[in-house]
Amino acid sequence: MAQAAREAEEFAGEPVDVPDFIGTLRGLGFVEPGPGEPAAGGRAAAKRRCGRASRS
């Protein structure tokens, strides 16, 4: 994560709180949870729910 933070800071020109950024992406459903992590809400989860409902 330290390397990602350095690269993000270099790109953005200012420090980036990478753990917070990843948390935001997870909350929005753009990043799948890892093993043992709670399921994310947001778009990805909503799409999965809608897809399951349409196949029922």
Q: Helix count?
A: 3
* Unreliable residue stretches: none
Overall radius of gyration: 15 Å
Largest sheet geometry: none
The overall strand count is 0
Strand content: under 5%
Span between termini: 40 Å
Structural class: mainly alpha
The topology string of helices and strands comes to: HHH
In which range does the helix fraction lie? 55-70%
Tell me, rounded to a whole number, the average pLDDT.
Answer: 80
Write the layout of secondary structure elements.
Layout: H1 2-12, H2 18-28, H3 42-55
Question: What does this entry look like structurally?
Answer:
The longest helix is centred in the last third of the chain and has 14 residues, at 42-55. The protein starts with a helix and ends with a helix. It has one domain (2-55). The protein has helices spanning 2-12, 18-28, 42-55. The protein has 56 residues and is an all-alpha fold.
